[in-house]
């Protein structure tokens, strides 16, 4: 099984014509974070996209459609260097992108939150939740990939690739989702080590739901079990989908996500 997150898909698609208008959150440091917000009931559902993906992916739009029909508040956004936000992908790090999530939480939302993180977004949601524990009522990870810069990139590089990364600062890794490959920077790897989570207790006590496909060729499904073990919360459920891949974007996958979010919303509201 290939475990390289450099194969993470950019499964974006055109915005639906009926969707909310794009807005820009201007940060004090000059960054511009593109986002879409849907008014509705609390808790606000916030979607965090994956590595080299963006807020127009199928899961984000399906979740927005569900929230609209349920009257639930919803936000999706592009991290810097992704989609319609400012910055370049090569300049980004896990800490930077987690800070983008916190900025959106602070600047766009009110009240309690349910964070939904896809792939890399599953790492970012944990980091953001640790900074805003008092507001996060629940978490949903979809093929969540905490620590992927170390476990699934650095640890899978050849000696030659490591030497090139250390000397040149950037390497291009092959991707199943683009002939041009993905640029991986030394800064991404080095900074990622300051945000690793799976080797210690993750001090979050809210309900957590982790959905992972057992045919995921990019993030091993056992990552979900490791994450479950490290979370301090006693209310953690892992849903393993035997025929599920990394995307988890089929009709049955979307239906499963909708059922999970509906149940979690009901639980945290009750």
Task: Give your account of this protein's structure.
34% of the residues lie in helices and 24% in strands. The protein has 270 residues and is an alpha/beta fold. The protein has a single domain, classed as 3-Layer(aba) Sandwich (Rossmann fold), CATH 3.40.50.1820. An eight-stranded mixed β-sheet has the order 1-2-4-3-5-6-9-10, sandwiched between helices. α2 crosses α3.
| β-strand number | 10
Radius of gyration, taken over Cα atoms and rounded to an integer in Å: 17 Å
The level 1 CATH classification is Alpha Beta
Give the CA-CA distance, first to last residue.
41 Å
Q: Count of DSSP helices?
A: 8
Under CATH, the homologous superfamily reads Alpha/Beta hydrolase fold, catalytic domain
In which range does the helix fraction lie? 25-40%
Largest sheet, strands/sense/barrel: 8 strands, mixed
The CATH topology, please?
Answer: Rossmann fold
Give helix and strand order, one letter per element, not per position: EEEHEHEHEHHEEHEHEH
* Largest beta sheet: strand ordering: 1-2-4-3-5-6-9-10
> Outline, from the CA principal axes?
globular
Annotated CATH architecture: 3-Layer(aba) Sandwich
Percentage of residues in DSSP E strands: 15-25%
Poorly predicted parts: 1-18
Number of domains: 1
Keywords:
270 residues, Rossmann fold, eight-stranded mixed sheet, 24% strand, globular, disordered N terminus
Summarize the structure.
Helix content is 34%, strand content 24%. The chain is an alpha/beta fold and 270 residues long.
């Amino acid at each position: 099984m290939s475990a390289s997150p450099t194969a993470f898909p950019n499964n974006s698609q055109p915005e639906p014509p009926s969707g909310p208008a794009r807005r820009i959150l201007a940060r004090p440091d000059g960054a511009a974070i593109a986002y879409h917000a849907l008014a509705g009931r609390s808790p606000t559902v916030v979607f965090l996209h994956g590595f080299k993906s963006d807020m127009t992916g199928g899961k984000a739009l399906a979740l927005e459609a569900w929230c609209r029909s349920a009257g639930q508040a919803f936000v999706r956004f592009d991290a810097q260097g992704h989609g319609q936000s400012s910055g370049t992908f090569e300049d980004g790090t896990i800490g930077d992108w987690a800070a983008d999530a916190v900025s959106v939480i602070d600047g766009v939302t009110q009240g309690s939150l349910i964070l939904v993180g896809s792939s890399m977004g599953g790492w970012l949601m944990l980091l953001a939740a640790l900074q805003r524990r008092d507001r996060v009522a629940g978490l949903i990870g979809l093929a969540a990939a905490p620590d992927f810069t170390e476990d699934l990139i650095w640890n899978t590089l050849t000696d030659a690739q490591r030497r090139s990364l250390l000397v040149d600062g950037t390497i291009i890794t092959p991707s199943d989702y683009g002939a041009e490959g993905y640029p991986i920077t030394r800064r991404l790897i080095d900074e990622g080590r300051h945000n690793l989570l799976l080797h210690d207790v993750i001090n979050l006590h809210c309900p957590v739901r982790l959905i992972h496909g057992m045919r995921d060729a990019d993030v091993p499904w056992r990552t979900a079990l490791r994450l479950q073990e490290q979370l301090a919360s006693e209310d953690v459920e892992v849903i393993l989908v035997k025929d599920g891949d990394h995307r988890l974007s089929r009709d049955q996958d979307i239906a499963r996500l909708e059922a999970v979010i509906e149940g979690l919303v009901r639980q945290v509201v009750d």
